[in-house]
Specification:
5 helices, single chain
């Protein structure tokens, strides 16, 4: 187990998953085209919903690459973490739409696990991560997201806590 590597990956996961929220705060409606293009699934609900945007994914991946480089991790790992975290976020949103939950609604576990587990699993192809490393990474990310969300809401970085 390499605690420093796990800590760096948790930072990357946090940046990847937090950047779209901050982009919405700072960019407003500019460039906020939904990634699903308004597509409706056969159940009559949006595929992902209006809050999952091309802008959010692009900025997330870009900043995660920069953060990886700044942390001394290969930029390709940053691209992997950022893109796969966004894939996990889309999977979570897809699932929430099927459960008839509103966009940006809280679903503890469903909001944190795919966004951290899938990228950490993807990293095992390039980094020496053990199952325990992945478990610790997912647990720390999930607890951190729940604990810090109300703080971010009070600071005005989120509209409401998770």
């Amino acid at each position: 187990m390499d605690p420093l590597l796990i800590a760096k990956l948790i930072v990357l996961l946090s940046i990847a998953n937090g950047t779209p929220v901050l982009a919405t705060k700072f960019c407003g409606k500019r460039f906020d085209q939904p990634i699903d293009g308004g597509l409706v699934f056969f159940d009559g609900r949006r595929l992902f919903g209006p809050t999952k945007t091309i802008r959010g994914v692009a900025i997330s991946v870009g900043l995660t690459i920069v953060a990886a480089w700044m942390l001394g991790i290969d930029a390709a790992i940053g691209a992997l973490v950022g893109s796969v975290a966004m894939l996990g976020d889309l999977l979570s949103s897809f699932s929430k739409r099927r459960l008839d939950l509103a966009p940006s609604s809280r679903a503890t576990g469903l909001d944190q696990i795919p966004e951290s587990l899938i990228p950490l699993l993807a990293c095992t192809a390039f980094l020496p991560l053990t199952p325990l490393d992945i478990l610790i990474g997912v647990a720390v990310f999930a607890v951190g997201a729940v604990v810090f969300s109300p703080i971010f809401a009070r600071l005005g970085l989120r509209d409401r806590p998770f």
